[in-house]
Amino acid sequence: xxxxxxxxxxxxxxxxxxxxxxxxxxxxxxxxxxxxxxxxxxxxxxxxxxxxxxxxxxxxxxxxxxxxxxxxxxxxxxxxxxxxxxxxxxxxxxxxxxxxxxxxxxxxxxxxxxxxxxxxxxxxxxxxxxxxxxxxxxxxxxxxxxxxxxxxxxxxxxxxxxxxxxxxxxxxxxxxxxxxxxxxxxxxxxxxxxxxxxxxxxxxxxxxxxxxxxxxxxxxxxxxxxxxxxxxxxxxxxxxxxxxxxxxxxxxxxxxxxxxxxxxx
Length: 265
Known about the structure:
Layout: E1 24-31, E2 35-36, E3 45-52, E4 55-58, E5 62-66, E6 70-74, E7 81-84, E8 88-95, E9 108-111, H1 114-123, H2 135-149, E10 152-153, E11 156-158, H3 163-174, H4 182-189, H5 193-204, H6 208-225, H7 230-236, H8 242-253, H9 257-261
Antiparallel strand pairs: 1-8, 2-7, 3-6, 3-8, 4-5, 4-7, 5-11, 6-9, 9-10
């Protein structure tokens, strides 16, 4: 997994539990600074959701980003890291795998409806050993139903398995505004540009150009959520033209960068 400057970040504590007290368990955290977790796995699924702030989840196969109104569902047993932006209000749901037979075996970024958001907020205020047979148990059941109905969206970036391609991807992930193309990397890695292009598509399912554009647009999400001006974000993410950045952003996400920036605290 790419470190992306994470080695110097404060580590969040990972709860030590042999089993969940209930099939659905909530954890709330206020994170004023950017934080990360060490790579870890657990026998239950995890829904990582931020009321404010942006969450990133790193796995060997991809990078997943969730601004507000989005959440990341991590399947049981998957090695992962969770990285938060500054001023993140995080809500985690730990879910018994037996209640998630419908879930995919890979990470998913899900759209969070207003109803699901309020259910997550309310459930987070319940005691760990809530009454499963009463109103609290019914709330948990409705929450899980809403989670199952949440659509998956493409706020993810596939990650290659080839070590040379990982080197390339990590460099761009750390600095999205890098101007270098495949010709530069083919010379640096000692492989032909044609071979590098073919291997990149094989490992990620995307052309290098499409992958880099998606990376740049996903990298804009934390900056916009922090309230940075759209023009500054465009430049930081490698766009010389603000209008080109806005058009590409709208095409991928379905809304403008200005709309996300206006939601910032």
